[in-house]
Amino acid sequence: MDYSLFKQEIHDIIKIDLNCYKEQQMHRRILQWISRHDLIDYSGLAQALKTDQEHRKKFLDYLTINTSHFFRDPSVFAYIEQEVLPTIKKNSNVRIWSAGCSIGAEIYSIAILAEEQRLSAATFLATDIDQFSIEQAKEAVYRQNQINYVPEHLLRKYFISKNNHYELKKSITEQVTFVKQNLLTDIFEGNFDLILCRNVFIYFTSESQQKLIAKFVNSLKKGGYFVVGSAEHIINPSQFGLARVSYCIYQKQ
Q: Please, which residues bridge with residue 220 across strands?
C-alpha cells in the first residue's frame, strides 16, 4: 500500500482527509507512529486502526496533537480580558466558541474571565474532532503543568486541589457545551461574538486554511473577534472582512 492509498483508507476508517493537512509534516508523523509501534508499513497501521479501538483512539489523539494549558499566551488572554470581553459584554446573547478545544483549558480560561467580569448571559461552545479529548475536557481534572499560568487568586477561587491534580469547579464546567466536530466537513453554527481557533491552522494546507477562515468569519457577528495561535498569521485579513486589532486577534468589520 502506498501513501496515496493509505490516505484513502484513513478517510474511510476515521473520517479524516489527510489531503487537507501539510503533506511533509503529516507524512513524517505517520511514519514515526508506524516505527514506534512496530507496524512495518501502511497496511499494518490501517489494519490496526480497523481492528483495535484503543489503537485508533491513541492514533487520533497523536494525529490531532492535543496539547494545551490554561491561559496559553498570556498577552492574548490579557487583551481578551481587557478589551474583548468588556466590548462583547454589551451585546445580547453573547456566544463564545473554542474550535479545536483539545482538553478544554482554553474555553475554561475564557469562562473564568467571563465569570470574573459577571458576563452571566454568555454561552460557551467547545468542539474537537477527538472524542477522547472531549471526555477529558468534561472531566476537567488537570496536572500542575497545565495550570501553571493560572493566577493564584483564580486558582484558589475556581479549582479544587486533589492528589496533586486540580479539578475545575462545576460553576465553570457546567457553563460549557462540548461537541465532537470535524472543522473541515461539518457545518458551523453562527452568531458568535468570539471564536478561538488557535494552533490548528498550522497543520493544514494553505487552501484548507483559506476555506476555514472564511467559514469562521461567516459564523461571527459583525464586530465579533477571531483569535488564532501565536505561530499563525492571516495574510491580507481584509479579504475576509477582518482587521487585525492585536497580536493574534482579528475583528470582523
A: 192
At residue 239, the 3 state secondary structure works out as helix
* pTM score over 0.85: no
pLDDT digits (tens, 9 = 90+) for 25-59: 889 889 999 999 999 999 999 999 999 988 988 88
Contact 15, 182 (CB under 8 A): yes
Q: What phi-psi label fits residue 131: left (phi over 0), alpha (psi between -120 and 50 degrees) or beta?
A: alpha
CA dihedral 199, 169, 129, 226 (to 10 degrees): -40
Domains of the chain and any CATH numbers? 3-64 (no CATH), 74-252 (3.40.50.150)
How far apart (Å, rounded) are the C-alpha atoms in residues 52 and 142? 28
Residue at grid coordinates 468542539: 127
Q: Supply the DSSP symbol for 189.
A: P
Q: Which CA distances in Å does 26 have to 5, 19, 21, 32, 169?
A: 15, 9, 7, 10, 37
Given the C-alpha cell 491552522, which residue does it identify?
Answer: 201
Position of cell 461539518?
Answer: 186
